[in-house]
Amino acid sequence: MSLAHVTRVRGAAGAGEDRLAVVPRGNGLVIAVADGAGGTGRGARAAELAVARLAAAAQQRELDPTAALKAIDPQLAVLGGEAAVVVVAISGREIRGASVGDCAAWIVAPDGAVEMLTARQHRKPLVGGGATVLAFHAPFTTGTLVVATDGLFSYASTGRITAACAKESLDAVADALMSAVELPTGALQDDVALVVCRRT
């Protein structure tokens, strides 16, 4: 079985401060999503640096998500920026990941059941501010993996997310997730970066 994925990134105003990276590794993937902390003036740069460093590490070797997040914490501190980050490494039939802040990773099963992989994560301090990293792991054989910033999870209900994940194609899933957080005007309440993934 192989892995298919689709991404979406959209700012509520301009480019926003959410970023993502997806790195294929053999039959697996490494997914990194980051939400730069607003109000610092360096949020977008912090998110960019976080996903770039995680992607570079994933290209060089098999990634230990927890160690990788801990390694970039002081790098963002030097920059003076902070970010919420979730990184997921899919290898074989298993997910290993790590997170800080309010980005999240869910597995939505075909029957609509939800496994919230990041439910116990620490909201603060963020990466760049002395983060306390949550490690997680889970089997991943069926269903849809959703990895996204809080622009999705804070504004879309669980029901809207599971309904979106029931759609046949990943493009349709991603489009439905974005629609779930749009205002009637079509604008967003917050930046969104998301990755949806399935085994095919």
Looking at this protein, list some descriptive labels:
200 residues, alpha+beta, Phosphatase 2c, domain 1, 5-stranded antiparallel β-sheet, 28% helix
Which whole number gives the mean pLDDT?
A: 93
By DSSP (H or I, 4+ residues per run), the number of helices equals 5
CATH architecture: 4-Layer Sandwich
Distance between the termini: 6 Å
What's the CATH topology name?
Phosphatase 2c, domain 1
Order of helices and strands: EEEHHEEEEEEHHHE
CATH hierarchy class name:
Alpha Beta
| Strand-pairing-aware structural class | alpha+beta
Spans of at least 5 consecutive residues with low confidence: none
Query: What proportion strand?
Result: 25-35%
Helix content: 25-40%
Shape: globular
The tally of strands reads 10
When the domains are counted, the total is 1
Biggest sheet, in brief? Answer: 5 strands, antiparallel
The whole-angstrom Rg is 15 Å
What does this protein structure show overall?
By secondary structure, the chain is of the alpha+beta class. It is built from five helices and ten strands, in the order E-E-E-H-H-E-E-E-E-E-E-H-H-H-E. It has helices at 43-60, 65-79, 150-153, 158-165, 170-180; strands spanning 3-10, 18-25, 28-36, 83-91, 94-100, 104-108, 114-116, 134-139, 144-148, 192-199. The strands form two sheets. Strands 1-10-9-6-7 form a five-stranded antiparallel β-sheet. The radius of gyration is 15 Å and the shape is globular. It starts with a strand and ends with a strand.
